[in-house]
Amino acid sequence: MNEEGEMMADVIILGNGPAGISAATYAARAGLSTMVIGRDSGALTKAGEIENYYGFPSPVSGEQLVQNGIEQASRLGAEMISDEIVGITYDGQFTMQSKTNEYRASTVILATGASRRAPKIQGLREFEGKGVSYCAVCDAFFYRGKSVAVFGEGDYALHEAMELLPVVGSVALLTNGKEPSVEFPKEVTVYKNEISSFQGDTVLSSVVFKDGSNLPISGVFIAVGVAGSSDFAKNLGAETAGTTIVVDENMQCTIPGLYAAGDCTGGMLQIVKAAYDGAKAAMGVIKRIRTL
């Protein structure tokens, strides 16, 4: 921790599933200050019995496998932090923000699993780049003085709304029938109606609700649920292909110092592949830091 109270590390790994923990094990053993930030270990903890992972003569539960990995990485010196990251910026170093904390690192490994699917609502995909955005920090400038909306209901949506408020004319929150899980400022008008479609000619101009009403907007920022690896990659300007992150042979994204591992990079969605990706990403980080 530095004098400003920021928590700092050589490498911060987002996600404490098999890809993230495998990366932490290699990075910590190499002597790098290593932080792993995550709230839960994803789909693996829901797996009852795993019989096809190397080294276990008897079936092991996903939850036990996760716990074994976390204990191993902790023993080797990795710091485990329970927190939810809602935004990342880059200014030569990476800064990660949660609701209450700020973390900085020279390298980051994204390992939060496969990205959730975007809601299947008419017009959402058609207006991507024409009013539908996934990054308030990146695109708020283009909506100065205009009416926009944030699609979501939690901390991630709150973070995007707070980024937009000083720049745009007005911010609405679209929860699509859900109750907000956090409190939004009074400047944000909350619409709990279920959404039918997003409409416009060449660019987005309104959201239509299932009750027949509509709301004129110039843009909508998608921030559903918890921010995932592909969201962070897009926010930083790294190349993605659909919901997967494009990486090179060292698991590095198109942003130097940013790596990704596991299900978020596509391919076979298996523990053994995630563990391999995590190890490979960590080796890339180790080489980068030692070279610099």
Low-pLDDT segments, ≥5 res: none
User: CA-to-CA gap between the ends?
Assistant: 22 Å
Helix content: 10-25%
Q: What is the overall silhouette?
A: globular
Q: What is the mean pLDDT?
A: 90
Number of H- or I-type helical stretches? 6
Query: Which structural class fits the helix and strand makeup?
Result: alpha/beta
Largest sheet: 7 strands, mixed
Can you give keywords for this protein?
about 25% helix; alpha/beta; five-stranded parallel β-sheet; about 290 residues; 6 helices
Write up what this structure looks like.
The chain is α/β, with parallel strands linked by helices and 292 residues long. Helices cover 24% and strands 26% of the residues. The protein is built from 6 helices and 17 strands. It has helices at residues 18-29, 62-75, 136-139, 155-164, 229-236, 271-291; strands at residues 7-14, 34-37, 79-81, 85-90, 94-98, 102-110, 132-133, 147-151, 170-174, 188-191, 195-200, 204-209, 214-216, 219-222, 240-241, 244-245, 258-260. The strands form 4 sheets. Strands 1, 2, 3, 4, 5, 6 and 17 form a 7-stranded mixed beta sheet that branches. The mean pLDDT is 90.
